[in-house]
Amino acid sequence: MLWCRCHSAVLHGCTVEDEAFVGMGAVLLDGSVVEKHGMVAAGALVRQNTRIPCGEVWGGNPAKFLRKLTDEEIAFISESAANFANLAQVHAAENVKSFDEIEFEKVLRKKFARRDEEYDSMLGVVREVPSELILPDNILPDKSPEDAAVGSVDPHQFTCDPNKRRHGQTVLTKYGLTG
């Protein structure tokens, strides 16, 4: 049984195909199938061995066919699937960081943080660097927080190869050199 904490969906012995949508609080029981581009509405109870076909919205308790999806809704489901997959990768990368990596990132972000352009314009400040913080996520040079505090770390000189992760640590690569 899979229980999704953030959406409170319960998936028990069912099949949810790629690019299918399961709403918040929905319950899918044994043998139920949600086909690609199928949608289960929030709070729905999908009974055992129920098949939700492509392009249909099902909802209620027990779930029943409500209507066909529009082309825009199908595109939204596909886009949402890609967004959630990317979010899952970011979540996984963030959760393997050690306490020291997190603290070091905090130091770097504070050190290189900038006010937004509107704030700067009110003060009459013009910056040569963009106001956005250009510190890629999940990138930490092999330095200690003390080194960052004294200004010896330039976070822009590092890149990360996401395919090279060893024991939860990001392997860094300087431009053109493998590490």
UniProtKB/TrEMBL annotation:
GO terms for molecular function: transferase activity. The keyword Transferase applies. It is found in: Mitochondrion membrane. GO terms for cellular component: mitochondrial membrane. SUPFAM superfamilies: Trimeric LpxA-like enzymes. Keywords: Transferase. This is Bacterial transferase hexapeptide domain containing protein.
